Amino acid sequence: MSIAIQAITSLRQTYLRIPTHMAGELRRAEEFIQLAVMAAEHCLAPIRELDGGRTGIYLGTAFGPMRTNFAVLADLIHQQPISPTLFSHSVFNAVCGYIARRHHIYGPNLTLTSYAWPFFRALESAWLALQDQVIDHAVVLQAETYAPLLSDARHAMQPQECCHWPAGAVVWLLGRHGSCRLKEIDIEEIPCPAEARLQRRESITIPAGSARQTIAGPESTSFRQEVHHPLAAAESLSTRLQNNDLPSSWQVKADYGRVTMTFRHQEMM
């Protein structure tokens, strides 16, 4: 059974804006939480039919609230009092509580960490839950922020090729009804050197004949794109789907494995 992708949002930290009516709620939240909450807000705001008890939240992240993690560790090392708020926000799944409370979601709540495919691991878990009819909707998200220490480590490993990693978030809403449908998702993770996970050399491909339908039929040329940061694959696919450019097959490969997904378009009655 295929599952519908009902809404999609991508948000970079550069474009993060907190509206006045949410300023009080997020005034003590750090950047990881702010990014994820506002991306979810943009994604879910137009949706009115969510049943909170039948909706789940599935977060995948590679580095989580990394700046906050290091701030807590710094206080600990220097034997300074640790703020309870700062400590609670250093926990990866704290953001899910913010989203659940704001949107009255009290179904399954799962946080996954993966240095390889965090968004797609979360997507797979949500897709299976919908397949098994455990839930009717799923909020699937990846959010990433980075500490200076990570940038230093990456630059030391590859000084000539160290590209900027933008902080941001991607959110999808899955459900049962909709024309853009995810048929299958298959994920493989393989062992690799740590350097490969920090280099993030990923290759996205859409095989010839799998690209979007045109009046003359399926496009005959293949598509290939190289991406280099932890949110890039999820952002690239999100942009394609938002543009109604629905491939029948989509794949991303790297030294640490691959993700293969198949889609179909279903006409709405």
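^ that was protein a. below is b, sequence first then the tokens
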Amino acid sequence: MHQTRRTGWRDPALTIALGAAPVAGLAVPASAATHRLSGTLSCIGTLTQYDTFRVHARGGASITVSSFTSIAAGGVNYGLRSKNGTQVTRSLNFVRSELNRSKRFTTTQGSATIPQGHFAVNARHVTKSTGCGFPLPSWSGSLSL
């Protein structure tokens, strides 16, 4: 049984609904799947590692963030993590002015071709806060693999 490591002070909530529509304005392979995502983040900036892994055929991958709740001006960084726990992409930062804009992941070496594998989302709230109120920071969007 594979156990997923999570960091941060709170077990993040993650909901998923699968769809087949490509992300608007971004060319993705016909075989790409679009996954609706939403999650809760640590308000003090610790890494949140979501535990749902999705299959990806070799090629491009992108993320679109459609909403933030209680997110600081620094936004949120996103990356893709393999089953061995290593983040395989460079982090993408989204701030409020970039909502509903698609961004393509690149590997840590800078390639736009993400290798075949199973990947989960990493997210980090970019903040200097040492505490938080409620509601907890959260986000929603879609991931195309």
